C-alpha cells in the first residue's frame, strides 16, 4: 500500500473515511461563505501602489509632511460638469444653478475638502469656448484610499439634478472613473461566470457522457473558489487587494478547478473499466492523475509567484488571488474528490447521455486521435517545421505592440463617465480632473532664484499646447508653499487622457528636459507626481521587472520538471513550446485588438493599446496553465515508456489515450476565458481572448503536433539525464504502484 504522504495514500485515506472528509469540507465552505459575505467588500481597493518608491511616490511622501493644507494625501479631484444647450454662463439662471450645486457640495463638509467654480475664480480654463459648459472642481477628503466612500454622497448631488431639461450635470475624476471600472468589472464577472459555467457543464457532459460525472468537477471547482475568496478576505485584512482579484479567482478557479477534477475523475473511471476495485482505482488515480495534478499545480504556483516579485499591488493581487485558488483546488482534488468518488462509486456514470456514454473498454488503437498520432509521427520533420513556422508567424505582429493603460474612453459608451470624458476631451482637458503635481523642495521656495525658475517654467508651459485646454486656455501655475517654506507645489493640467501616450510623453519631457532647464542653478530639487506620472513609473517598473520574472519562472519550472520527468530534454522542450504558444497569443492580441483584424466578428472593442500589465500577466498565467497539458500528456508517455522502453509506441499511446480528455479540458478553459472576454471592459476582453487563444493553440498545435513529432525525432534522448544529476530527488509523476492488469504489449500500440 502506498504511503499516506503520497498522493495515492492520501486519496485512499480520504476514500476510506469519505463522510468525515466531505463533512469537513462542507463545514469549511459554509464558514468561507460567512467570511466572504461579511468581509470581502471591505478589503478591496481601487488604489494602485508602486512599492519600489518611484519618483511619483517620493513626491507624494514629500507633500504628506510639507504641512500644505489638503496635501497630507494625494488629492482626489472630481470635476462637476454643468452644460446647457439653451443658455450660456452669462445667463443668471446658469449662475444660480451652478451656485446652488456648489453650495450643496460645500455643505458636505465631512466628504469635501474644497470646491470652487468659474463664477468665483473667473479662470478661463473652467469654461468652454462656447460658454455653454462650466466646471466645478471638487476635492474629496482623505486621499485615494477613502475616495469611494466620500464620492457616493457627493455623486448623489449629481444624480438629484440629472433629468433637468435645462442642464446636463456629470462628474469626472479618479473616484468616479475607478467606481465605474469596478461596477463594470462586477458586471463582466457575472457575464463570465454564467457563460463559463454553462458551457463548461455542456462540455463536461459530452466528455464524460454522464451528467453525474460532469457535475462533480463543476461543484468542486465552485467550492475551491469559495474557499479561495475567504482566504483572500482574510489576507486582505493585512494587505488590501485590488478589486479585480475576485475576477481572477473566479476565472482561474473555474478553469483549473474543473480541469484538475476532470483528469482525476476520468482516470478513476478508466481504471474501473479495466476492472480495479473502487478503492484500488481511487488509489491508482491518486498515484497517477493526482500526482500529475499536484505537480501541474506547483508549476502554476511557481509561474504565478513570479508576479509577486514586481513591487506593485496590482500584480501582487493578481498573483495572490490566483495562487490561493490554485492551492484550494489542489486540496479539494487530493482529498475531497477521492472521498466523493468513494461515495459515488460507479454511480458517477449515472444519467448517461446517448451516443456519448462510455461503456466498456475503449479501443485506443482506433479513432481520430490514433490516426493523428500515426500521421504526425510518420512525418516528424514536416510536423515540427510546419507547426513551429505557424506559431512564429502568429508571433510576428507582437513586435509592433503598443502598450498602454485603459482610460475612461474604453468604458461602455452608455456610462456617465464616458460621456463626461468626451466633454472634457472636446472642450477642456482631462488633466483638469487629474492634474500633475510639480513638487519643489529647497531651503526657501519663496526665494528669488526659485521664483525665477517657476516663472521660467510657466513661460515654457504656456508655449506648449500639451499644457493648455482644448479651447486654448492655459492657467499660470502658482507655487503653493508650505508653512516652513521648504516645500512648494505647482499643479498643471496636461492635455489629453492621463493614460494616453501624449500625456505620458509630456511627463517624461517635464522630468527630463523642461524642469531641469527651468530650475537649473536655482538650488531646488523637483519631483513630478500625479496620475500620468504614476503611469510613467508603472511602465518603467514593468520594463525593469519583466526579464527578472521571466528568468525566475523559467528557471524554477525547468528545475521542477527536470525532477518530475528525470530528463533535461523534456523540460527544455516544454519551455520552448510554451514560449511559442505565448508568443503566438501576444501576436494575435495585437492583430485583433490593435490592428482590428476580425474584431467585429468577435464583437470586441478596438483599442489603440494593449494593456501594459497584460504581457507579463499572460506569460505567468499561460506558462503555468499550459504546463498542465504537458504534464498530463508526458506523464502518460513516461508511464508507458517505463513499462515498455518503446519511445515511439509510448508517445503514440500517450497522445491518443489523453487526447479526448485534454481536448475537453482545453475547451472548458477556452469557454471560461471566453466568457470573460465577452464583457464590456477592454482589459477583460484582451485578457480573456489572450488566455483562451493561447490555451487553444497549446492544446491543439503544440500538444497534437509539436510534442509527439519532436519526441519521435529525439527518440530515447528525450529521457536523457546526465549522470552527475542523478542525485536529484525522483519526483516522477508516474511513480505509482503497478497496475493490477496487464498492459498491451508495445507492438500493439501502432
Structure description:
- The chain folds into three domains: 182 residues, Multidrug efflux transporter AcrB transmembrane domain (Multidrug efflux transporter AcrB transmembrane fold, Up-down Bundle); 108 residues, Alpha-Beta Plaits (2-Layer Sandwich); 243 residues, Multidrug efflux transporter AcrB transmembrane domain (Multidrug efflux transporter AcrB transmembrane fold), CATH 1.20.1640.
- Helices cover 62% and strands 7% of the residues.
- It has a four-stranded antiparallel sheet, with helices on both faces.
- A hairpin with a 5-residue loop joins strand 9 and strand 10.
- Helix 13 crosses helix 23, helix 18 runs antiparallel to helix 19 and helix 21 runs antiparallel to helix 22.
- It is elongated and about 90 Å long.
- The two termini are 34 Å apart.
